[in-house]
Amino acid sequence: MALSSLRLCAMLELSVILFQVVGVIALCVSRLLPPSSIRWANRGRAGFVVAMIGLGLAGAFCGRHDSDFALFAGGSMTILLIGMTMGSGQVDTTVPPRSLVAPEANLAS
After folding, report:
1. What's the rounded Cα separation, in Å, for the pair 89 and 54?
2. Which of 75, 40, 41 is nearest to 55 (CA)?
């Protein structure tokens, strides 16, 4: 009976808060763990993607109900994306880099 008294808009606002917390935790897990814990870093990246999709959907639905939490969702998505792309993170490469042009020794002779 208690769930019937909650408004849909309030549930959407709570989901925005939940996805913001999940996004911050996933960002910290994926960016701050040492390179030896690849499994947890990958889980953090997957959680980050889930949080971004959830924030987008929850923010869109909050916008349909004229809630200001749509702005919070958009702002937190922007800050989380900046946090994920900034810094000197580890680059995931599967193939070692190779030079595209072979050096030529006798160019000036």
Report:
1. 24
2. 75
Question: Count of CB atoms within 10 A of residue 25's CB?
Answer: 14
Look at residue 22 in the predicted model and tell me its pLDDT. 94
Cβ pair 58, 29 in contact under 8 A? no
Backbone angles phi, psi at 103, to 5 degrees: -70, 140
Supply the mean pLDDT for the chain.
Answer: 81
Yes or no: say if 59 and 74 are a contact pair by the CB < 8 Å rule. yes
- Do residues 8 and 65 touch, judged by C-beta distance below 8 A? yes
Best CA proximity match to 12, nearest among 77, 49, 76, 60: 60
Q: What does the alpha-carbon distance between residue 95 and residue 41 come to, in Å, rounded to a whole number?
A: 20
The model carries a pTM of 0.70
Residues 20, 55 contacting (CB under 8 angstroms) = yes
**Tens digit of pLDDT for each residue in 48-86?**
999 999 999 999 998 888 888 888 888 899 998 888 888
The DSSP code for 82 is H
